[in-house]
Specification:
Helices cover about 35% and strands about 20% of the residues. The chain is of the alpha/beta class and about 170 residues long. The chain has a domain of about 100 residues: Cupredoxins -  blue copper proteins (Immunoglobulin-like), CATH 2.60.40.420. A five-stranded mixed β-sheet has the order 2-8-7-4-5. A three-stranded mixed β-sheet has the order 1-3-6, with no helix packed on it. The chain is globular and about 75 Å long. The N and C termini lie close together (about 10 Å). Keywords: Disulfide bond, Glycoprotein, Membrane, Signal, Transmembrane, Transmembrane helix. Pfam families: Cu_bind_like.
Length: about 170
């Protein structure tokens, strides 16, 4: 009986180690764009670029845009539109009362500008790259559509482990 209990104990440890080794990081980071400055016309044209360069953005992270002092917007644009501060019509309004949250849907490089007045030309813009957990930046088409397959594997693993432990306990 003690031998069987020892084997079950070892099996539980092995299962826990395997589950830990195959688990993916699920907690997402939340970044307030501009930190305490928020999303506004910055004190210099490199402020948001410098801010983004100190961060590592992973798939699932969320960026929070808090407008301070006035109404701003968030436009997700192409590199050409970013470089030229092109006024685009597809924007998300950001009011001082109501922060805007953006979770990039895939890996790749994103270009963000404010199209209000000349805010972009004054430096209210930045680009950032989103990477998959544990890998370098990839293009948006390289990412699987969902994490459902990892959830299915985890669920199957849990069911098989429970069945095996129950079987060993009763026989």
């Amino acid at each position: 009986m003690a031998s069987r209990m020892g084997m079950i104990g070892c099996l539980i440890v092995v299962v826990a180690l395997l589950n830990g080794a195959t688990a993916q990081v699920t907690s997402a980071g939340v970044y307030e764009v501009g930190d305490s400055l928020g999303w506004t016309v910055p004190p210099n044209t490199s402020y948001y670029t410098n801010w983004a360069s100190t961060k590592t953005f992973l798939l699932g992270d969320q960026l929070i845009f808090n407008a301070t002092g006035a109404t701003h917007n968030v436009a997700i644009v192409s590199k050409a539109d970013y470089d030229n501060c092109t006024k685009v019509t597809s924007v998300f309004e950001v009011q001082p009362c109501c922060p805007f949250g953006f979770t990039p849907p895939s890996t790749g490089t994103y270009y963000i500008i404010c199209t209000v007045s000349n805010h972009c030309e004054q430096g209210q813009k930045f680009s950032f790259t989103v990477s998959a957990v544990g890998s370098p930046a990839e293009s948006p088409t390289d990412l699987p559509n969902s994490s459902a397959s990892s959830l299915t594997v985890g669920a199957l693993f849990a069911v098989l482990t429970t069945t095996l432990i129950s079987f060993m306990t009763y026989f």
